[in-house]
# Entry
Amino acid sequence: GENVEQHPSTLSVQEGDSAVIKCTYSDSASNYFPWYKQELGKRPQLIIDIRSNVGEKKDQRIAVTLNKTAKHFSLHITETQPEDSAVYFCAASRGDMRFGAGTRLTVKP
Amino acid sequence: NAGVTQTPKFQVLKTGQSMTLQCAQDMNHEYMSWYRQDPGMGLRLIHYSVGAGITDQGEVPNGYNVSRSTTEDFPLRLLSAAPSQTSVYFCASSYIRTAGYNEQFFGPGTRLTVL
# Structure
């Protein structure tokens, strides 16, 4: 089955800096790659997603890039703010969705 | 729209007991799934369903059963609870379209402790 690896497991940045989280997947048939944000004690919520026919997608301060050949995709957050502090999960899906282990992002004011 | 609902929110079981975690969605989503979340391990897929009457196993199905008799409901049954099943359980649902799968909406979770 699909295996998703996510790095780093923790990331600390200064407010205003950029943050990058990287994921790799194993199944070349995966065609949908979402990113979820989970705040403490809450449910995961989608922040951005990308399909395999697209190389990059942006939504304000958040962007995702996908390299199908290398089977990796990345989340970029620019101008980070303290409210961006949370755990971020990448996932890959060709039907059943598999998640990475998560990255705990801390944005220091 | 209530979205995805789960009951109960919290549950404590003794080893060997059985119970059913309830999940319902009112968005007419074809796809429903169950995950468990343990510290440092992300969300691991237990079982999923692409429609009424169709279920399949995910990464960690042992010790759990599911059924999908209606589009709205997708209960998860623990047959004989073990301490290793202590976790937070999330149910999720999404549409399936010709372009593929879509955003999964998560329920609020059930925190289960097995003593």
Observations:
- The radius of gyration of chain B is 14 Å.
- Chain B is about 0% helix and 50% strand.
- The longest strand of chain B covers residues 43-51.
- Chain B has a mean pLDDT of 94.
